[in-house]
Structure formats: structure tokens, C-alpha cells
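[Discussion] Sanity-checking designs against the backbone

I'm trying to build intuition for which residues belong where. Below is a C-alpha cell string of 707 positions. I'd appreciate it if someone posts a full sequence so I can compare it with mine line by line.
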């Protein structure tokens, strides 16, 4: 059989590798800055662009989409060419993909610190950037599917299945979750409201973890781990079960992020059931990876690549056992809104994604530069310091989560909350925040060692931009019979279509009833749209990232209703575009904060949090007192919200600013009566108006909330 000559494109892989390392170091550095601010708020240097609320989405986007995303593309472009015995479908598309992705990351680096964000976790980027992401993702997909169609290898190896599932599912998730109505070039409102927005967001958020941080890296595991171990994958049949069961079940699990919230109970229960079912396929994949090392365990002692990969797969197993356990309601009641969740996420992020990336880079770079790793000893030091970093990071946060949750729920013998002041539960865990930062520094130190090692490795070798290869052409003859899945592997278009069907079913079953059956979201007559001033205040709340530290969801626990007031109802959120339930309480829940403090208290709290809450780890926000809201945007905001169903009267936008100024004057006059002079258009006035509105649309308990 005649062999065809062709060349693999290593240059595109090289560029994605460089971006991976550079953005990895930057993303981790931003993470350490954030971690430091949790015990030293002054670490924001008094700048509005570096506060915790603004740089948290910068950190998550940098790590997920810049570090892990670029690593994913590097791993996919390298392995796919070799698994399919062909060059990528189009060099031009490869480079459009690379530079387009880096420009998207640059746009995130600029817009997020400026406060331009949607507030939806892992989807904070505003609408023009969302469109750019869609275009570049389609470019990636065309290049990938085109490469599969022109392959010289008849069967698609298991790694390719996971790459296909990643492309298809992320496309669906991103498009559905990103429906929004633009107000200005960098401001939009979510198309969905309240409970529905929360469901769509966590359907996206959970499955962004599943199909951006998990499935592509399972594909990478299935390629690079056997290569590094020089062993075949343990079980082909197990990989089939692993793949189809994982992608079908995962998509249903999103509601477990919303247990005990205002989401309908049936949706919460579905999320719990499917989350628990996820243990089986997840551990099937982990075991398939670890058992691939049978006969090669003696090499793990010396080979840093195998060390990283073993710990990565083990961390994947730990995270995918813990996730389903956290979806059990009585475990979730303790862990949710605490640092336990942060620890859980970082075991997956630092252990599974980070270590698998490190192992992949240590294996790939010497081969692309035709040399040996510069220093195996340094790579082993990186492994141990990185492992220590994960432990020092995670263990204090697990402890902090349990300690704080139990303090929240603790009642004394007289039946009163033992710690009624929320701040008491924060000051107790500050030392653990310090340890977390130390763990981050250790992990970053290891990554810097790796960067040095890889640069020295490249310098001692010679880069092969075009790697010569040969393979026989794909025969066109029809093959009859064989294992059913082997037949499916020869039909990439049908395979892709079946993948799409498998991932769509769960989303449709959960979302359609929540949107179409009104009894799922009982309306409350007294709930009214926000006033124009409150609307500006809400947008400032989003801009400053307040929902990174404060929730707006009082759960139906005695400890929460005693501390905050009446538990939250689904009908209270029908005009919330987007929802702001939050996912972490570094500060108290704010859903019932309206009318509990006077305007002067809120003014002083934002100017100097320690003046109202001694020991607070919240930074001051002095710029809110000197910057003014833009009255020219009011009409556009009213029109956009009317488009998505908020019942503002036709033409109201023409007189909205009159109402705004009337309410602003009431607040500024009240402050003036207490010897505080402030402009009626100051941002702080709008923010106070919003905070004073929260939770006041329905009759609530009169329990005082302690800051």
C-alpha cells in the first residue's frame, strides 16, 4: 500500500503552549492578589480596578479560558493530527483561532477590571465579546471536524470522541446562556429573569466545568497518559461506557448548585439524582486512566511526567466523588456558600487541570524540540512543591468552610443564635485565608520553575515546525460488520449528531417546564420593577462585583431566617435581569437588608467599612462618592428591560430621570440632615437606593441583621 507524505503543524501548538504558560502565571498571580485581599483588603492599593469584586472574574476567566483553554487547544492540535494521521484541515483557520482567542482574552483583561461584566459566573464577558467567542469557537469546530473528515485513520480514537463532545456542548451552552439584550456597547441585561436565569446560568456554569475543564482533558488523558507510560489504554469497552454515560448524565446536574433556593423542588431533585449517578462514569474514567499504568508503576518514581499525571487523575477522582456528595441536600446544607466549595473547585482546577497540563507540557516540549528535558530533578521539585501547594491551599479552606457553616447554624441553650454577628464567623477563619495564600504562592513557584525548565529545554534543542510523517490513504471501501461502536467511530458526522442529542435532552427536560409552566414561579402582586435610581444602583452593585462576596438568597433554614428574615420566594425575582443569588458568603446575605439600616449607615459602610463593622475585611469604595451615574443611559436601560418583559409603561423612559432625581434628592436630603453633603448624582446615592430596596417588596420578619 502506497504511503502518503505529509507534515504535522507544530508551530500552532508552540504558540498555544507559550500562551498557556504566560497566561497561567498571570492568572495564578491575580489569584494570589485576591487571596491576599481576604486578610489584607489594602492589597488592592486603593484602586477601584483591583478590588476583589472586580478581579475575581478576571482570575477565573484567566485560569479557565486563558491558561486551561490554551492548554486544551495545544493538546488537541498536537494529538489530533497524530491520531488522525493528517495535518489540521486549514492552517489559516488554526491561526485565526489562535489570534482570535488571544484577542478575546485581552478584551477580558481590559473590560473586567473596568467593571464591565454580566455578573454570571464563568460567563461575565459582555455581549460583543460573547459574539467573538462564538465566532472563534465555530472556527475551531470547523477546523476540527474538517480534520476528522480528511483523516487517514479509519477509526476515531477515544480522545477524539471527547474533543467532539467538547466542541458541540460548549457551543450549545455558550449560545443559550449568552442571550442578552444590549443597552450600550459594554452593558447588557440577561434575556432571562430570576429563577429561570439562575437555572440557565448553573446549567451553563456546571457544564462549563464539565465540558471545558473535564471532557477535553479526559481526551488529553486518553492520549498523553498512554504515550507517557508507553502502555495501551486499559479498557476500550470501559472508555465507551465512560464517554456516553458521562456526557448524557453531566448535563442534568446543574441544579445541584441551587439546592434550598427558590428553584422548583422537582428541578433540585433532578439535579441531585443525576449528580449522584455521575460518580459511576467519572470513576470509570479515573480507573481507566490509573489502570493504564499497570506494569509502569516502577517508572512513576523517577518520571515527573507520570507523577503529574497520576496525581492529576487521582485529583479528578477526588473532585468527582466530592461533587456528587456535595449535591446531597444535607451535605449541601453545610457546605454551600462556604469556602468548602472553593477548596473543592481548586482540587479540580489545581490538581486535575493544572497537573495534567504540567505533565503534558513536560512530555510534549522535548519531543517538539527534539531533545531531552533540561532538568528532570527540577521537574520533580516542581511536582512536590506543587503538591504541597495544593494541600496547603485546600485543607485550610475545607476547615474554614466547616467552621464557618457550623458557626452560622449554632444556637445557644436559650434558643438564640450563638454568633448573631456575621462578622464573628469571618474573623475566626482569617488565619485560614492566610494559609490559602501561602498555598497559592507555593503552586505559582512551581509553575515558574516549570517555565524556566521548558525555556531551557527549548534552547538546547531545535524546534521542528513541520514534522514529517507518512501514512496510507484512507480506503473508501465499505466495511461490513464489527463492533457497533467501531462502526459508529467510522462515521464522524453521525457520531457528532448523536453527541448533540445526548447533551440536549437533559437541558430541555429541566428548562422547558421551568419557562412554560407558570406554577413553577408563583408571582407576587406586591413585587414591582426597580425604580430608575435603583436600577442604576443595581448595575453599580454588579459593576463592583458585590455578589462575589454577598448572596441574595435566604434559604429556608431556621438559622438563616433568624439571622436575615423571611426566606426568599421565587416570585420576588421576576424582574431581576440578571439574578444575583451569589454562590459564596464572605459577607452576610443581603436579600433582606432593605430598610434595616439608615442611609447614613450605608454611606459610612461603603466609605469605611471598619467604622460600622470593626474587623471587616471589606475594602472601602471611595470612588463611589466622587463618580456620578450617567443619566443618558437611563432611557436605554428602561427600553432594554421592557424588551425582556419588565412592565415599564410605554414612554416611561422619557420621564424616568425625573423620578430618578426625585428619589436621589430624598436620599441626599436625608444625608444632609446628618451633616453629610453629597451630589444627588453620586454613585453612592444610587447604590444606597438599591440596597434600601432589597427584600422590601413582601412583608418580612423584623429580625435585625448584623453586618
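Best answer:
Here's mine. Compare freely.
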Amino acid at each position: 500500500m502506497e504511503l502518503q507524505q505529509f507534515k504535522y503543524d507544530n508551530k500552532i501548538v508552540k504558540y498555544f503552549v507559550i500562551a498557556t504558560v504566560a497566561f497561567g502565571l498571570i492568572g495564578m498571580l491575580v489569584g494570589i492578589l485576591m487571596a491576599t485581599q481576604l486578610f489584607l483588603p489594602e492589597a488592592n492599593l486603593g484602586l477601584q480596578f483591583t478590588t476583589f469584586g472586580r478581579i475575581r472574574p478576571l482570575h477565573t476567566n484567566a485560569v479557565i479560558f486563558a491558561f486551561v483553554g490554551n492548554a486544551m487547544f495545544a493538546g488537541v492540535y498536537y494529538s489530533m493530527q497524530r491520531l488522525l494521521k493528517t495535518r489540521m484541515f486549514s492552517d489559516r483557520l488554526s491561526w485565526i483561532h489562535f489570534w482570535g482567542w488571544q484577542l478575546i482574552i485581552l478584551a477580558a483583561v481590559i473590560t473586567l477590571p473596568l467593571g464591565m461584566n454580566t455578573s454570571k459566573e464563568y460567563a461575565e464577558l459582555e455581549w460583543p465579546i460573547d459574539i467573538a467567542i462564538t465566532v472563534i469557537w465555530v472556527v475551531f469546530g470547523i477546523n476540527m471536524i474538517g480534520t476528522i473528515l480528511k483523516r487517514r485513520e479509519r477509526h476515531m480514537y477515544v480522545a477524539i470522541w471527547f474533543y467532539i463532545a467538547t466542541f458541540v456542548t460548549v457551543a450549545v451552552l455558550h449560545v443559550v446562556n449568552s442571550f442578552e439584550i444590549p443597552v450600550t456597547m459594554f452593558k447588557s441585561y440577561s434575556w432571562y429573569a430570576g429563577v429561570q436565569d439562575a437555572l440557565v446560568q448553573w446549567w451553563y456554569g456546571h457544564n462549563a466545568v464539565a465540558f471545558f475543564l473535564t471532557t477535553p482533558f479526559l481526551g488529553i488523558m486518553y492520549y498523553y497518559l498512554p504515550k507517557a507510560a508507553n502502555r495501551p489504554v486499559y479498557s476500550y469497552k470501559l472508555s465507551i461506557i465512560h464517554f456516553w454515560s458521562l456526557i448524557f448524565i453531566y448535563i442534568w446536574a446543574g441544579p445541584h448548585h441551587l439546592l434550598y433556593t427558590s428553584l422548583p423542588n422537582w428541578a433540585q431533585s433532578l439535579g441531585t439524582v443525576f449528580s449522584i449517578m455521575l460518580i459511576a462514569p467519572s470513576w470509570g474514567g479515573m480507573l481507566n486512566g490509573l489502570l493504564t499504568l499497570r506494569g509502569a508503576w516502577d517508572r512513576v518514581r523517577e518520571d515527573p511526567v507520570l507523577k503529574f499525571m497520576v496525581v492529576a487523575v487521582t485529583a479528578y477522582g477526588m473532585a468527582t466523588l466530592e461533587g456528587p456528595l456535595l449535591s446531597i441536600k444535607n451535605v449541601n446544607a453545610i457546605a454551600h456558600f462556604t469556602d468548602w466549595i472553593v477548596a473543592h473547585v481548586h482540587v479540580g482546577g489545581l490538581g486535575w487541570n493544572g497537573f495534567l497540563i504540567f505533565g503534558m507540557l513536560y512530555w510534549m516540549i522535548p519531543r517538539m524540540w527534539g531533545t531531552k528535558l533540561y532538568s528532570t530533578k527540577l521537574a520533580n521539585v516542581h511536582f512536590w512543591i506543587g503538591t504541597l501547594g495544593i494541600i496547603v491551599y485546600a485543607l485550610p479552606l475545607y476547615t474554614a468552610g466547616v467552621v464557618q457553616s457550623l458557626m452560622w447554624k449554632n444556637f445557644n441553650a436559650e434558643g438564640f443564635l450563638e454568633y448573631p454577628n456575621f462578622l464573628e464567623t469571618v474573623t475566626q477563619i482569617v488565619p485560614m485565608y492566610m494559609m490559602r495564600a501561602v498555598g497559592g504562592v507555593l503552586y505559582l513557584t512551581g509553575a515558574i520553575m516549570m517555565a524556566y525548565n521548558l525555556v531551557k529545554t527549548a534552547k538546547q534543542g531545535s524546534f521542528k515546525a513541520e514534522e514529517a510523517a507518512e501514512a496510507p490513504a484512507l480506503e473508501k471501501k465499505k466495511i461490513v460488520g464489527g463492533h457497533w461502536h467501531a462502526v459508529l467511530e467510522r462515521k464522524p458526522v453521525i457520531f457528532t449528531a448523536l453527541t448533540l442529542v445526548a447533551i440536549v435532552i437533559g437541558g430541555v427536560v429541566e428548562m422547558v417546564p421551568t419557562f412554560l409552566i407558570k406554577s413553577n414561579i408563583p408571582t407576587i402582586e406586591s413585587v414591582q420593577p426597580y425604580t430608575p435610581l435603583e436600577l442604576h444602583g443595581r448595575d453599580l452593585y454588579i459593576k463592583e462585583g458585590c455578589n462575589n462576596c454577598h448572596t441574595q438568597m435566604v434559604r429556608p433554614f431556621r438559622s438563616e431566617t433568624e439571622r436575615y428574615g423571611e426566606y426568599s420566594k421565587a416570585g420576588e425575582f421576576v424582574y431581576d435581569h440578571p439574578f444575583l443569588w451569589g454562590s459564596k458568603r464572605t459577607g452576610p446575605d443581603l436579600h433582606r437588608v432593605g430598610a434595616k439600616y439608615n442611609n447614613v449607615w450605608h454611606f459610612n459602610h461603603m466609605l469605611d467599612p471598619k467604622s460600622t463593622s470593626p474587623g471587616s475585611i471589606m475594602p472601602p469604595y471611595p470612588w463611589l462618592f466622587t463618580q456620578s451615574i450617567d443619566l443618558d443611559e437611563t432611557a436605554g436601560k428602561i427600553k432594554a428591560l421592557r424588551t425582556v418583559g419588565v412592565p415599564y409603561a410605554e414612554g416611561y423612559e422619557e420621564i424616568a430621570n425625573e423620578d430618578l432625581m426625585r428619589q436621589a434628592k430624598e436620599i441626599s436630603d436625608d444625608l444632609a440632615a446628618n451633616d453629610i453633603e453629597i451630589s444627588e448624582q453620586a454613585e453612592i446615592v444610587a447604590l444606597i437606593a438599591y440596597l434600601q430596596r432589597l427584600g422590601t417588596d413582601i412583608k418580612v420578619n423584623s429580625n435585625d441583621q448584623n453586618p
